[in-house]
Automatic annotation (TrEMBL):
This is AAA family ATPase. The keyword Protein transport does not apply. It comes from Streptomyces coffeae. Residues 206-550 form the UvrD-like helicase ATP-binding domain. Keywords: ATP-binding, Helicase, Hydrolase, Nucleotide-binding. Residues 11-23 have a biased composition (Low complexity). Residues 1-29 are annotated as: Disordered. It comes from the Bacteria. InterPro entries: DNA_helicase_UvrD/REP, P-loop_NTPase, UvrD-like_ATP-bd. ATP binds at G227, A228, P229, G230, T231, G232, K233, T234.
Length: 707
């Protein structure tokens, strides 16, 4: 590909803005003009006088907030390129393709131009003509999708290269020119190979065609992505949120969007990506955050946690809740003035049966019951010659006799108390788990020491998911417009249900890798996971092109695949740099010193360094690093040029990446898990965190497949 980068040592090669025949100079002046236009757009918003347009205080507050958000969104960030690509169409596309929103389309004038600069946000000049087009607009799509085979009406695709905020290079593809051969992009390659520091960054300039298809998939359906380590699942999920917010801004502003990640460190690592794409309104949480109904202070055995996470528990809970509804034994007698109205028990029973059959939430049915009873009273009043109206029905519904009847036959249930009883009371559990859990399973689920109350109980993480299920049986959980679930392979069926009920009326993006499942309940298949999520029909896509891990390293890690996830496709690596890869066997007594030495070596390279070790090894290694005078961070703490070494417990490594990784004692990582398969999966995660180099240091023997 023809690449145009000036040689800074040659003065004649530097762009001359006054020379209209120098294409780089012209692109730079378009950049300068776009920057000026963005500043003007910002100044326009800042100059808005809200006093004239807002009649009252509430309006003015809301509007002021909107304006402030808009000003933030229009900031010109010095270190991010305002545009990174350009498209020349053969024919000018229609106005509707230029921008997504009506105002911007009108502002863009639309349809008249065939040249578009593609960037992170829309910028227009004083006349409303577009200077930079949002990467998410339909007109930008060929930047990601067009190829020589399918040029999508594109004559020229240009990619820009930046050095420290300066536009310094560009690269052209003449997609409709049959004489030009297809070639790979060196700017793209450079971007992929760039050393990592700090939190995760956006990939908006280099999204690949198969990724773009997932990013732009319609909001109506749920998409599930299976992808080997480093294939860009997290990146794709975050860009998909940004895309959906652009294409369906109003709908999602009302209903909300949520990104779910495995732990706090991971959420810290990814939290900058969406703001960099101009999206500030997306909530981020772990599954535990979603179901935090009570404080978690206990830990289950793996077996108990697995059983509590089993989907069968949903039926146990449903039965236990329903058991609170009792057959009315007494009539309901309402006294009004001098008259008494009696709804007999058999009629109350009919009402209850009817409500049960309607399959509505327990709480909604309970709320409806007083009105149903009142209605039965009203019918009798009419038969008795009275002419009661709606107000009378309301009054009867609030009558103490009606309230007492409701309390007796359909009592209020507190979700945590319901779960507490199930886990504490063997007879209650046996009654409702009959035919669902066998005796041993019931025993495993029961707490060793029954709890006295919700506050004092030693709740475990899996219990809170049960409470969440119970809460949803009583009152419908609020559903969001779109949910992204990352590292989805690790959830239990009950956790999938908890996530699923948060997007019953919306859609979801499910991202994960079956080979990286490290919980005892990790899912065996995406079909199963999707069924528990309530999205059974969703399409499963596979990403196999790896952007992170060097070829030799991914090949080494993939040797574990037959043991940990037979049938999965091994990832390829699109990194050209071979990467450093070493496996060092040392005398067990000298292991710690060898690890510290490997960290020192890694620190001679540019970028971030991760020392990954079994959780049990962390205290010893922390001490050794400190004694050696090496400062280190915890995962999720931001790496910087001064602090580049992170000490990573293997259980927190998932989803993270470091330029150079030192992996301490693989056998200890495997032994840190309750069974061998989980141990090898944990090791697979640890082996696949490196971008530029991996050094494995071991004193004990390696797992068989890695020997
Ligand atoms: N199209 C792309 N262009 C440039 N970099 C990319 C691209 N896609 C992914 N990357 C980079 O590759 C790395 C891995 O991406 P990401 O963390 O999203 O992968 P993942 O599939 O979620 O990995 P894991 O399974 O290990 O969690 C990140 O640094 C990401 O920015």
């Amino acid at each position: 590909m023809p690449s145009h980068a000036p040689d800074p040592t040659d003065p004649s090669d530097l762009a001359d803005p006054s020379d209209p025949s120098d294409p780089l100079a012209r692109e730079r002046s378009h950049l300068a003009a776009s920057r000026a236009a963005l500043r003007a757009m910002r100044a326009d918003v800042e100059a808005l006088d809200l006093r004239d347009v807002t009649a009252n205080w509430v309006n003015s507050e809301a509007l002021q907030h909107q304006v402030e958000e808009r000003i933030k969104a229009l900031a010109d960030l010095a270190d991010t390129a305002l545009f990174f690509g350009r498209l020349n169409y053969l024919h000018a596309p229609g106005a509707e393709a230029v921008e997504g929103t009506e105002e911007e389309r009108l502002a863009a004038g639309g349809g008249s131009s065939d040249t578009f600069y593609i960037g992170r946000r829309h910028v227009h000049d004083a006349d409303g003509d577009p200077m930079v087009i949002d990467w998410r607009a339909p007109v930008s799509q060929p930047f990601y999708q067009a190829s020589k085979k399918a040029p999508m009406d594109i004559a020229l695709r240009r990619r820009f290269g930046y050095t420290g905020g300066e536009l310094t290079a560009y690269e052209d593809e003449h997609l409709s020119d049959p004489a030009e051969a297809e070639h790979s992009s060196s700017l793209l390659q450079a971007e992929i190979e760039r050393p990592r520091v700090g939190p995760m960054r956006d990939i908006v300039a280099t999204i690949q065609p198969e990724q773009d298809e997932i990013v732009r998939a319609g909001i109506g359906g749920t998409v599930c992505v299976q992808g080997a380590p480093g294939t860009g699942k997290t990146a794709v999920g975050l860009h998909r949120v940004a895309y959906l917010l652009y294409a369906h801004r109003e709908r999602l502003a009302r209903s909300g969007t949520l990104v779910i990640g495995p732990n706090r460190s991971f959420l810290h690592y990814i939290e900058q990506v969406l703001p960099a794409l101009g999206e500030l309104q997306v909530a981020q949480a772990t599954v535990d955050d979603l179901v935090a109904h009570v404080e978690v202070r206990g830990t289950d055995t793996a077996e108990a946690a697995r059983l509590k996470g089993d989907a069968r528990m949903a039926e146990v809970l449903r039965r236990a809740l329903r058991s609170h509804v009792t057959t009315p034994a007494e009539p309901c007698v309402v006294v009004r003035g001098s008259r008494r109205w009696r709804v007999p028990a058999y009629e109350l029973e009919e009402i209850v049966e009817e409500l049960l059959a309607r399959n509505i939430r327990y709480g909604a049915a309970r709320d409806a019951l007083p009105q149903r009873i009142a209605h039965a009273v009203l019918v009798r009043m009419e038969q008795g010659g009275e002419a009661p109206d709606d107000r009378v029905q309301d009054a009867v519904a609030r009558n103490t006799a009606v309230k007492a009847t409701v309390k007796a036959i359909w009592p209020a249930v507190h979700p945590a108390k319901l779960v507490l009883r199930l886990l504490s009371d063997a007879d209650f559990l046996a009654e409702h788990a009959d035919g669902i859990l066998d005796a041993d399973e019931q025993k495993a689920v029961l707490w060793a020491k029954p709890a006295r109350g919700v506050k004092s109980a030693k709740w475990c993480a899996a219990d809170t998911v049960l409470i969440d299920e119970a809460a949803d049986l009583i009152e419908r959980t609020h559903s969001l417009g779109h949910v992204v679930l990352d590292e989805a392979q690790d959830l239990s069926p009950m956790q999938y249900r908890a996530v699923g009920r948060r997007c019953t009326t919306g859609s979801a993006t499910i991202l994960g890798d079956l080979a990286q499942g490290t919980t005892p309940w990790a899912t065996a298949s995406w079909q199963e996971a999707l069924t528990h999520l309530g999205k059974a029909g969703a399409a499963v896509e596979e990403l196999t092109q790896g952007f992170r891990v060097p070829r030799e390293v991914i090949a080494y890690a993939s040797r574990l695949l037959p043991d940990i996830a037979p049938g999965l496709t091994e990832a390829t690596s699109i990194r050209e740099a071979a990467g450093d890869f070493a496996v060092r066997q040392v005398d067990p007594a000298g292991l710690d010193d060898a690890v510290v030495a490997a960290c020192r070596e890694a620190l001679t390279h540019e970028g971030s360094i991760g020392l990954v070790a079994a959780d049990a090894r962390i205290p010893v290694l922390a001490e050794r690093l400190a004694a050696a005078g090496l400062t280190y961070l915890a995962p999720g703490e931001e790496t910087s040029a001064e602090a580049r070494l992170t000490l990573v417990p293997a259980t927190l490594a998932k989803g993270l990446e470091y330029d150079y990784v030192v992996l301490d004692e693989p056998a200890a990582v495997v032994d840190g898990e309750p069974d061998e398969r989980t141990g090898l999966r944990r090791l697979y995660v640890a082996l696949t965190r490196a971008v530029s180099g991996l050094t494995v240091v071991h004193g004990a023997g390696l797992p068989e497949r890695l020997r």
